[in-house]
Amino acid sequence: MFSLTALTALSLLTSARAQQVGTLQAESHPSLSYQTCTSSGCTTQSGEIVLDSNWRWTHQTNGSTNCYDGNEWDTAVCTDGETCASSCAIDGADYEGTYGISASGTGVTLTFVTEGQYSTNIGSRVYLMDSEDSYAVFQLKNQEFTFDVDMSNLPCGLNGAVYFVEMEADGGMGAYSGNKAGAKYGTGYCDAQCPHDIKFINGEANVEDWTPSPNDTNAGSGRYGTCCNEMDIWEANSQATAVTPHTCTVAGQTRCEGTDCGDGDERYDGVCDKDGCDFNSWRMGDETFIGEGMTIDTTQTITVVTQFITSDGTASGDLSEIRRIYVQNGQTIQNSVTAIEGMDEFDSITDEFCAQQKAAFSDETSFADRGGMSRMGESLENGMVLVMSLWDDHAANMLWLDSDYPLDRDASQPGVSRGPCSTDSGVPSDVESDSPGASVTYSNLRFGDLDTTY
User: Fold this and answer.
1) Nearest to residue 387, comparing CAs of 95, 57, 108, 71?
2) Is 230 an annotated catalytic residue?
3) Which of 144, 204, 230, 381 is catalytic?
4) In b/e form, how buried is each residue of 199-231, taking b as 16+ CB within 10 angstroms?
5) How many CB atoms lie within 10 A of CB 11?
6) Helix axes of 351-361 and 372-382: crossing angle, nearest 10 degrees
7) Is-contact 89 22, C-beta < 8 A?
């Protein structure tokens, strides 16, 4: 972005103690309609999408000088989190020109690399809104969520993700007086990884102990993370897919620091289950179920149905099962069945499936330790926000989704092989240069009673 001189900027700092909204680019949310369904039929709802605040231009309130440039804060302005939030603004977005996001009617396409006027953008994350200032919040117990996806253009190393997180409907604007941007500008993100790369958390800039990433020119890591329950409906590329609930001991968006964030060697000491209890058909023993030309053919559009079944068949009952169904070429196809030594045959996620999987794979029981399906059900009942994204992985090259992972274990051990991609694949610099035009399209979002959306 273009900038004014630092001298001019420093002489005009605002005294307001709040995260500001910029006025140099108008914010206009692309429209995206969705449907709510019952046994009587489906009703179309008018919706919008909004770009996450982390992608937005962050500049000084009095002009266009960057507060955040590349992967570093301007420490002359951002001396601490509160001062930075009062001195800096996040601005509106040119969705298609800068970020490669295009929405029309019932569908949205996210393009991987976009060459804008001032910068090169990599990936994106958007949220579904039910009004200009509020995320759409869904209570999914005893309900199902269905969408169509075309991910034929996503190679190894990319992740086209659709998921729910327990964010605040207003993006935290009501809870934190320092947040003047709110959901309209995509604030308030959280997930079970308790990410430290979020620039503004709880209305303050995450500048304390900020360390630029050694291998990502756009990202860094601050003292604080932002945690919440997460339901990964769909993490996928053309070679691999997974559906994964992640539980946390905290309710709603929560800022963490230290051990609570579960970083590094303290991974299993934090408030959230970072591993999750995943159902990846390849990892669960069926290497012919989903992929190019397979039973579920990733070269064609796929209808993905996820059901949240309760013990008593009501929205107030305990969550007992997360079931996956596919529809393709007019055929309804049930999920694959596990074929792992030491495990029963499962085709859905239950507490028993998770217990047997963790034992068979010698994995930590962090999902069960943080409440398992019951805890996930509580979050679904509280209400969650829909997220759609496209990203590459500077931490592990997406090997945990589509290749052998972790690399220090033999690939012949149960649970290590997760997809057909090479362990040399997924390096972000390679993916960004080799597949800049990669994209994913999500369409025909439907929420409703069981067996009414497909």
Assistant:
1) 108
2) yes
3) 230
4) bbbbbbbbbeebeeeeebebbbbbbbbbbbbbb
5) 9
6) 130
7) yes
CA dist., res. 398 & res. 409, Å (int): 16
The tokens 């001991």 sit on which residue?
249
Burial class (CB in 10 A: 0-12, 13-18, 19+), 31: middle
Tokens of residue 57, six digits: 């231009």
Position 84, amino acid: C
Q: For the domain 33-52+95-449, what is the CATH superfamily, name and number?
A: Glycoside hydrolase, family 7, domain (2.70.100.10)
Q: What is the Cα–Cα distance from 219 to 122, expressed in whole angstroms?
A: 11
Q: What is the DSSP letter of 29?
A: P
Q: Which helix (H) or strand (E) holds 81?
A: helix 81-87
Domain ranges of the chain: 33-52+95-449
**Does the annotation count 341 as an active-site position?**
no
Q: Give the HSE-up count for residue 299: Cα atoms under 13 Å, Cβ half-sphere.
A: 4
> pLDDT digits over 128-156, tens only?
999 999 999 999 999 999 999 999 999 99
Residue type, 36: T
The reported pLDDT for the residue numbered 18 is 55
Instruction: Using CB atoms within 10 Å of the CB of residue 257, give its burial: 0 to 12 exposed, 13 to 18 middle, 19+ buried.
Output: middle
The token pair that represents 412 in the structure block: 């012949």
- Measure the CA–CA gap between 203 and 89, rounded to whole angstroms: 11
Low-confidence winner among 21-30, 46-55, 333-342, 414-423 (lowest mean pLDDT): 21-30
pLDDT, tens digit (0-9, with 9 covering 90-100), for 172-227: 999 999 999 999 999 999 999 999 999 999 999 999 999 999 999 999 999 999 99
Q: Pick from 53, 366, 99: which is nearest to 195 by CA? A: 53
CA-based Rg of the chain, rounded to a whole angstrom?
Answer: 21
Q: Please check the confidence at residue 353 and state whether its pLDDT lies above 50.
A: yes
Among candidate residues 27, 48, 235, 381, the one labeled active-site is 235
Q: Where are the beta strands (DSSP E) in 48-202?
A: 48-51, 58-60, 68-69, 72-73, 88-90, 101-104, 107-111, 113-115, 120-122, 124-131, 134-135, 137-138, 143-150, 158-165, 200-201
DSSP string across 419-432: SSS-TT---HHHHH
Q: Cα dihedral sign for 88, 93, 99, 103? A: positive
Distance, CA of 82 to CA of 69 (rounded, Å): 19
